[in-house]
Amino acid sequence: xxxxxxxxxxxxxxxxxxxxxxxxxxxxxxxxRMGAATLLAALAVGGIAVGLVQHVRRTNxxxxxxxxxxxxxxxxxxxxxxxxxxxxxxxxxxxxAMRDLQAERVRITEELRFxxxxxxxxxxxxxTVDGSxxxxxxxxxxxxxxxxxxxxxxADFRVYGDALLACLSRSGPSAxxxxxxxxxxGTQRAIVRSGVVARxxxxxxxxxxxxxxxxxxxxxxxxxxxxxxxxxxxxxxxxTPVTSLAGTTAVLLxxxxxxxxEARLAVMTLARRAEGMRRFIDSYRLxxxxxxxxxxxxxxxxxxxxxxxxFQVEWIDHALEVAKDPAMVVIADPDLLAQMLINLLRNAAQxxxxxxxxxxxxxxxxxxxxGPVITVEDNGPGxxxxxxxxxxxxxxxxxxxxxxxxxxxxxxxxVAHGWRIEIGESELGGAxxxxxxxxxxxxxxxxxxxx
Length: 451
Fold this sequence. Notes:
This protein is α+β, with helices and mostly antiparallel strands. It has 3 domains: 2-115, no CATH class; 122-211, Beta-Lactamase, CATH 3.30.450; 220-436, 2-Layer Sandwich (Heat Shock Protein 90), CATH 3.30.565.10. It is built from 10 helices and 12 strands. A 5-stranded antiparallel β-sheet has the order 2-1-5-4-3. A 5-stranded mixed β-sheet has the order 7-9-10-12-11. Pfam families: HATPase_c. InterPro entries: HATPase_C_sf (IPR036890), HATPase_dom (IPR003594), His_kinase_dom (IPR005467), Sig_transdc_His_kin-like_C (IPR004358), TCS_sensor_his_kinase (IPR050428).
């Protein structure tokens, strides 16, 4: 670069001048009669030697100052451009490097301040434990939560309970657990997450402590309430066709010439639905468990015919269109599947009950690409695209008189079987609920071999 060429030419000039001065001094000294010339030559040699040393030393001094600036983080240092050919270029380069380092230092400082403020304002209490078993409260939430102890040792935190003490004393891979904390307002449960990070080459354990007693209490009460509402909803849904069938049977048997075949069919259907309802209620006895399917193989056609009879008993003004593959075989829990489809058919009927010509269709078929599919569709208003995910949430409903439970139950039954359920648009003009019986991951199989 330019600095190298100028520095080299300057060094060559000074070196050449020094060589010439040394030759002149040598000639003057050997003549023996040129005292003044000898003195001048000696002065020239000395002056040129000093200039050569300064020429080299000036560069070394600037570079040394640059390295000292790096060492002591003095990024505001600037370099003098004077002092000879080429040093302006070197000074510009060193000053540019210092400005870049200063800008990077400002950026890192601002980023560090942001991270410190972010950590300090986190609503979750953060604690760190170093290799000497000293505990540091890393943010405001930690200082507000743990304010009953004195000292910074792990043992000083015993006042908050042995469970927290064990978490602070333990080291190892990341972990998460719920522990009781002894706080001024009483014992509360908290989620404690722990992990190990490196600080200056030394391992430091970091704990995040989040009291969740209030949320757990609210969730527990909500779960109990939801369970009662779900069971009430499902029992009433199942009792409606059972009551209708019982009344129909009583009418048939009370006629002068009772139709025993129809009465027998109604009683058999009534018995199956009562048994299915009993098994369904039994499956919900445990609060924390989804209904556990008991899959078996059965033909789709008679299963669909029974659903049609149940639908017609409850919805006299609706004509249910049933499209079924006579050869289709399903492997599922028939009671849970019936419960799911009763909910979906009832939703479809309710969506179309104000229409002059309501249409509800149930189809059970094998799709070449998707496998066995059960579809319930109608010609009602449909479900808006923005709400198609939310309708599966408990108690979410688009109807003023709806409970928002039926679709959630349907999804639970589908998930328990390992199926997939989705909402789309029907060619009838309304909503289409499609249940894909091919397991998403594991689960039971359908229309094929037993798992």
